[in-house]
């Protein structure tokens, strides 16, 4: 399979109650790319996916697959495959029947359908499950069948709506890795909607973060996390520590609890960092505070440190030390991990 470039130009979609779901959306999804659309409820991510699919038509704007304008084409003429959160499998058909259903409608011969079904069962690791009934399958197996059915007609574009949301955490983690390998091997253009930041980070070549129907930022997972475009993106993707600046000093910035290293100009009102950027020190650090909580998280512990600011600092520490509540904690930070944000 090969990918198809998708372009949305000036797309706007409002509903009958006046709600604007998508507003002046412009984006390009490269051929063979996996794009994760991430954002809070009501931000327009599902409407965007449905417009790409042809299940919704933009009030204004155009949608292109490669050089073809598909804005007014229904879903059955767009050559897309879809995987839904609830699988949408046919309970009266067995696994093979579900996979070849679309091929049968397209008029493929039984021999062609059987060959394609065997290929897909192997692809998703269900070689011995063709005759199983849907109710006999686990949640993960049903999701694989739904994926195989979507891929059966060799679509130009694969669309996934919260594909792993219905699974338990352990299975979701395993299928996330399998889905990533599968999409990369197929090199099919894929767009998936998710509310799970970890899922978006793991699967997306790029992430589109949406806010109120618009693009808040579209970038690689690393850039979204390390160089967020604004305060909304930074706070929505990962955890964030904020240091309101009291005044500049000879060596940096005075903040609650101490002094941060900073050489930037002009002096910001607030600087930020991620929890893993703060290091617990035996002696002196850049800031000091009292431990108000410590939570074991397996490979690391999450510390809450009160430095006298509005919110305690979040500190992710892998040193394995158990600190007493109320203990004085010294924290150091490298200057290059501090950043500022636009509102």
Automatic annotation (TrEMBL):
SMART domains: AAA. PROSITE patterns: ABC_TRANSPORTER_1 (PS00211), ABC_TRANSPORTER_2 (PS50893). Keywords: ATP-binding, Nucleotide-binding, Transport. Residues 6-237 form the ABC transporter domain. GO terms for molecular function: ATP binding. Gene3D superfamilies: P-loop containing nucleotide triphosphate hydrolases. The keyword ATP-binding applies. PANTHER family: SPERMIDINE/PUTRESCINE IMPORT ATP-BINDING PROTEIN POTA, SPERMIDINE_PUTRESCINE IMPORT ATP-BINDING PROTEIN POTA. This is ABC transporter ATP-binding protein. It comes from Pseudomonas nunensis.
């Amino acid at each position: 399979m090969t990918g198809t470039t998708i372009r949305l130009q000036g797309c706007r979609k409002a509903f009958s109650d006046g709600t604007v779901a998508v507003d002046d959306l412009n984006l390009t999804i490269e051929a063979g790319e996996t794009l994760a659309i991430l954002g809070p409820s009501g931000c327009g991510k599902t409407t965007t996916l449905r417009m790409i699919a042809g299940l919704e038509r933009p009030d204004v704007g155009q949608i292109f697959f490669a050089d073809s304008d598909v804005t007014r084409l229904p879903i059955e003429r767009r050559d897309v495959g879809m995987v839904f959160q609830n699988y949408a499998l046919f309970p009266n058909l067995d696994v093979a029947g579900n996979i070849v259903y679309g091929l049968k409608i397209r008029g493929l011969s039984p021999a062609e359908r059987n060959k394609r079904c065997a290929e897909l069962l192997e692809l998703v690791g269900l070689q011995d499950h063709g005759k199983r009934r849907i109710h006999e399958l686990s949640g993960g197996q049903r999701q694989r069948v739904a994926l195989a059915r979507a891929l059966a007609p060799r679509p130009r574009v694969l669309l996934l709506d919260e594909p792993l949301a219905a699974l338990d955490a352990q299975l979701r983690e395993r299928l996330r890795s399998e889905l990533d390998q599968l999409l990369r091997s197929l090199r099919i253009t894929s767009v998936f909607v998710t509310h799970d930041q970890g899922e978006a980070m793991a699967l997306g070549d790029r992430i589109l973060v949406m806010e109120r129907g618009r693009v808040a930022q579209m970038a690689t997972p690393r850039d979204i996390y390390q160089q967020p475009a604004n305060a909304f993106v930074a706070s929505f993707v990962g955890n964030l520590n904020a240091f309101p600046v009291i005044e500049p000093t000879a060596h940096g910035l005075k903040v609650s609890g101490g002094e941060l290293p900073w050489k930037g100009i002009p002096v910001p009102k607030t600087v930020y960092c991620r929890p893993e950027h703060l290091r617990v020190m035996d002696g002196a650090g850049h800031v000091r505070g009292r431990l108000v909580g410590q939570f074991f998280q397996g490979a690391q512990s999450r510390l809450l440190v009160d430095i006298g600011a509005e919110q305690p600092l979040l500190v992710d520490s892998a040193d394995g030390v158990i600190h007493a509540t109320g203990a004085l904690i010294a924290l150091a930070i490298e200057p290059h991990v501090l950043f500022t944000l636009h509102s």
